[in-house]
Amino acid sequence: MPNPATDKRLFLLDGHALVYRAHFAFINRPLINSKGVNTSAMHGFTRTLWDLMKNQEPTHLAVVFDPDGPTFRNELAADYKANREEQPEDIGIAFPYIHQILQAFKIPIIIVPNFEADDVIGTLSKQAARAGYKVYMVTPDKDYGQLVEENILMYKPSRMGNGVEILGVEDIKKKWDIQHPEQVIDMLGLMGDSVDNIPGVPGIGPKTAAKFISEFGSMEKLLDSTDKIKGKNQERLREYREQAILSKRLATIIQDVPIQFDPEAYLIEDFDRDYLTDVFRELEFRSIANEILGIADEPEKASSQGDLFASPASAAPASAPQRKNFKQPPAHAIADQHIGNTEHDYRKVESPEERAALLKELRNQSLISFDTETTSVDPTTAELVGMSFAWKSGAAYYVPVPEDRKEAEAIVAEFAPLLADEAIDKVGQNMKYDMIVLERYGAPVKGKLLDTMVMHYLLHPDQRHKMDILSEEYLNYKPVPIESLIGKGKKQLTMRQVPVEKVVPYACEDADITLRLYHALWPELEEEELVELYETVEAPLIPVLRDIELEGINVDGAFLQEYSKTLTEELQSIEREIFKMAGSEFNIGSPKQIGEILFGRMGVPYKGSKTKTGQYKTDEATLAEVSAEFPIVKEILRHRSLSKLLGTYVDALPLLMNEDGRIHSSFNQTIAATGRLSSANPNLQNIPVRTPEGAEVRKAFIPRDKDHVLLASDYSQIELRLVAALSKDEGMLDAFKTGKDIHTATAALIFDVPYEEVTRVQRYQAKTINFAILYGAGAQRLTQELEISRAEASQLIANYYERFTGLKEFMNGAVEQAKEEGYVATLLGRKRGLRDINSRSGVARALAERMAMNTPIQGTAADMIKIAMIRIHKALREQNFRTRMILQVHDELVFDAPRDEVEKVTPLIEELMREAIPNLDVPIVVETGVGENWLEAH
After folding, report:
1. 478: domain CATH number?
2. Is residue 145 situated within a structural domain?
3. Beta carbons of 320 and 294 less than 8 angstroms apart
4. How many domains is the chain partitioned into structurally?
5. 5'-3' exonuclease domain location, by residue (predicted)?
6. Beta strands 701-702 and 892-898: pairing type?
7. Interaxial angle between packed helices 760-774 and 779-786, expressed in degrees from 0 to 180 and rounded to the nearest 10
8. What is the tens place of the pLDDT at every residue in 739-782?
9. pLDDT digits 0-9 by tens, 77-86
10. What are phi and psi of 89, to 5 degrees?
11. What is the distance between the alpha carbons of residues 10 and 152, in angstroms, rounded to a whole number?
C-alpha cells in the first residue's frame, strides 16, 4: 500500500458524470434485479470505484456531486444545459443507493450549493497540488482538460474494454491540438459544447478553432484581431463576439469555490463491511460483493458414509477467511456455504433392492421433497433422467432411470403409488414442471402440494424465485450451478450425457435444499397470514395449469403458411410505396437510415433530442407524432407492425408445435407481481387483437377435430366492476346495477349531459379516463392519449373525482394504507410490498402510489379468475365432461369442447366464473362465444 506520508495520491470523482455514464453503459441491456429495480448505475459506479481503489491504490479519495437546483452559470445564461433531457427515473432512484455505498466505504461526499462538481474538483485539485499531492480527476468529461498540469491528471475510467485512460499535459495538448491545457476553454468558447448547451460561434468547429488559437494564443486576442480574418469567419466572429465571450465564461471551471482541502477528511479508511454487505444484499450484487468482501471457498468435505438411510452428521460450515481489518458479514448476507464445505449424505439408489428400501422409508414419512432431472426445459417433451427424494435435512437420494422409455416407465411405476398418496405432503420447487414430466411417465402427483417457488412468490412477488437465489438468501448456501455439469452455449450437454456420479450430488442437493427452503418459508407464510391464499388459490391452481399445458391447443399450420405469404406480399407492397415516397431505396429495418431519410433528407419536423450517438430517434412514439401529416411515416409504422406480426407469431408459431401438432404454452404463476398469470413459449397473451391483421392470427387456433369447437368465456369489464365493488362508489354501482354502459354513464356524469345525449367522442374520452384512473395515470398520460392540453386533462380528472367521490376515497385510502403498512392487499389478502411508497424520490414514490391504487384491483381480478379456473377444472372432471380448459388469456378462459356438450357446459362455466368471489354488490357479467377457431369464439 502507498505510504500517505510519502506518496500522496488524491482521487476526486465527478459523481454525476460517472453515475450517468454507468447508467447509459447498460442502456441496451439494463441490470434489473428481482425487485424490478434497474441497478445499472449503482453497479457500474461501484465497479469503477472498486477498480480504482484496487488498482490505483489512492491514499485520499472523495466524490463530488452537483447540487440540486441551478448554479451561478444559470444566472449567466438561463438556457445553460436547458437542452438536456429530464433525468431518467432510474438514475433518480440510484443516487440514494450510491450515497449508501459511499458511506459504507467511508468515502466523503462533497456537495457545494451554487457550484457544479467540476468547479469543486477544480478548486480542490489546485489546493491539493500546491500541498504536494498527485491529483487524479476521475471523470469522462472533456472540459476537465483545462485543469491538467504536472501534478493534476485526468483519469477516464475504462469502458467497453478500452481500459483506463490517464491524460497528462502532453495528452491534452495533442488531443485538442493546442499549446497548453488552459487553452481548452478558448476552444470551447469558439466551438461551443452541445452537451451543456454552450453555443460558441456558429460555423466554427474544432479544426478552425484550433487553427485560430494556435495563431492568436487566446480567444480574446482573436476577437480583438478580426480584421486579420477573412471571409465568413470574420463575419461570424464579429456577429457572435459577445456569445463567444459568454461561452468561454460558461466553459471555464472555477478554482475559487468556498471550500478548503482537508487531507484528514479524505484519507482512505477501512470500509464498513456490515453496512456494505447490507446494501449489496438489497441490490442483489453477488459477484462484485464476493470480490469486494473477500469470501473464498473451503476445501471440499466428503459425504458421510455408512448405512444407506443413516442420519447425516450435523453440518459444520467453515467461516470465510478474514481480510485484514474487515468484520465478518451478517449471517446469510453473502452465501459462504456450499457442497464443498458442508457435510451431507447424498446417495445413488440404483438396484431394485435399494429402490425398495428407499420406498419403504419414503412411505413412512408424512412429508417428502422430490425433484426430477430431465433432458429439456420443456416438460411436455423432456425425457426423464432421474428422480431425487429427501425427507430430512442434509440427506437425499437419487434414482437414475434408463433412456429406454419402457424401462424408465417401469422404474417410475414403482414410485407412482407414493407420488399419488394423498396422505403424504409433497414439497417441490416449480412443481408444475416435475408434475408434467411424471404425468407423462404414468405417475400423477397428488396430495398437498408445497411449492417453495410459489410460496416465495406470495411473500415477495416483486423478487426472483429461483432456487439458487432463495438458497443463498434463506440458507446461506450456494448450490451447484447446473452449468458446471452441462456447460453453456452450443456445446451444452443434456443431463443424460453427464456421468451419473456427477448428477447424484447435484440432483440430491436440489431435493435437500428445496426441503430446507420449505421449512424456512412456511413459517413466514403463517406470519404474513398468506397460508389460506396459498392453500385455496395458488396450490390448487398448480394441477390446473399442469393439465392445461399437457392438453395444449391445436394449430392450423396450413393457415399460417398461407397467411405468411399474404403478409409477405403486403410488406413488399408497402416497401415499394415507401421507396417511391422517399425517392430511393433504403433499409426500412434500420432506425439510423429511417431517421436520415425522414428528418434529414425529407425535412419531416423533428422535435426530440438525438441519441447519445447523434442519431435521430425513430421509436413508435416519435414517429406517431408526425404520422398523420406525413403518409410515408404512417407506412413505415405499418411496415414495422406487420413485420413484427410475421416474425413473432405467423412464422414462429409453427416452429413451436409439438409432434402432436399442438402448441403447449407454459403458464407462469410467479411472474406478475399483481397475481396475474403470464404465458411463454409462446406468449399467447400478447397476440395482438386491435388490428385486423393481428386478430387474424387467432384464426390459426382451432379445435382438436371436427367434432369439437372452441368456447371462450370472458369477464366483461371485470376491473371496473371490481373497483366499483371495492370502492362502493354510488355512481359506478348504479351504472352497473341498472345495466348502463359504464363509459357512457361516466361521460354523462363528468360532462354533465343526459345519458342519451353522450357523443362518441365523449364516450371515448370517458373510457380513456376510466382506465387511466384505474391504473393510477395522471394528466400527462391523458394529454398524450386524448391529444388534449394538460389543463384540459387536469380538468377532466377533477370532474371525474368530483362525480366519483367514493372512488377517489378508495384510491387515496389505498395509498395511505400502503404508506402506513408498507404494502397493499387484494380482497383475498394477496400482498404486494411497496418499498418506495415513502421514498424521497418523487418519481419512485409516484410509481409506488400508482401500484398502490391498481394492485388491489388487478390482484383481485387475478384471484377471481384463478378461483374460477380451479372450480371449473374440478367440475368438468367430476361431472365427466370431455370439455377441456386449454387457455387463460387476461380475463378470458378458452375451452376445447365437444359440440354436443356446449349447451351444458356454457351455463356451468359462466356460473362458476360469476360466483368465483361471491357477494360483490355488483353484477359480474360473463360473455361466451363459440366458433370454429379462436377468433370466431372470441
Report:
1. 3.30.420.10
2. yes
3. yes
4. 3
5. 8-269
6. unpaired
7. 150
8. 999 999 999 999 999 999 999 999 999 999 998 888 877 777 78
9. 666 655 455 6
10. -55, -40
11. 10
